[in-house]
Amino acid sequence: MGLFAARAIEKGMRIVRYTGERVSKEESLRRKKERGAKHIYSVALDEDWEIDGDNPQNDARFANHSCAANCELILEEGELWLKAARDISANEELCFDYGFSLAEALEHPCRCGAKNCAGFIVAEPSRKWLRRKVPNPRKVFD
Ligand SMILES: [Zn+2]
């Protein structure tokens, strides 16, 4: 599953709003314990609050992570939006950097297929380091 562009999209355009229940960090941690590694749709708004995007109304939740993302998830005026990070062609898959920490990455293999794929869903600043430390990530998950 994924989210795909129905038509060409210009860089900088807001594509779809990332919606969900606004929950405290504490409640989000409780849900993470309940859902385990499937708890991937929670996005931080600030230090205290998150949006739990795990609901059928949130079409943006279908956007996958990629190590070569063409979108970014941005916070504007208290709302989360999937925004085009570059010009996107019709039928291209829409993806963004989930921004996972190193600890979260170890629960989430990445199979995005990008030339620079780290093998883990991890925030861009950690990818180069992780590629050096774990040159064969498939062994971690097998
Ligand atoms: Zn990847």
Radius of gyration (CA) equals 15 Å
Helix content: 10-25%
* Lateral strand order in the biggest sheet: 1-9-6
How many β-strand runs? 9
- Apparent shape: globular
Ligand kinds? zinc ion
The ordered H/E elements are EEEHEEEEEEHHH
Instruction: Enumerate how many helices there are, as a single number.
Output: 4
User: The biggest beta sheet, please?
Assistant: 3 strands, mixed
Low-confidence stretches: none
Taking all residues together, what is the mean pLDDT? Answer: 92
The structure class reads: alpha+beta
Q: In percent terms, what proportion of residues is strand?
A: 25-35%
Specify the oligomeric state: single chain
- What is the CA–CA distance across the termini? 22 Å
Describe the structure in your own words:
β4 and β5 (49-52) form a beta hairpin. The chain has helices at 25-35, 102-105, 124-133, 138-141, and strands spanning 3-4, 14-18, 21-24, 42-44, 49-52, 64-65, 71-76, 79-84, 93-96. The model has no long low-confidence stretch (mean pLDDT 92). With 142 residues, the chain is of the alpha+beta class. The protein has a domain at 99-142. It has four helices and nine strands, in the order βββαββββββααα. The strands form three sheets. Strands 1-9-6 form a three-stranded mixed β-sheet, with no helix packed on it. It has a three-stranded antiparallel β-sheet with strand order 2-8-7, with no helix packed on it. The chain has a three-stranded antiparallel β-sheet with strand order 3-5-4. The two termini are 22 Å apart.
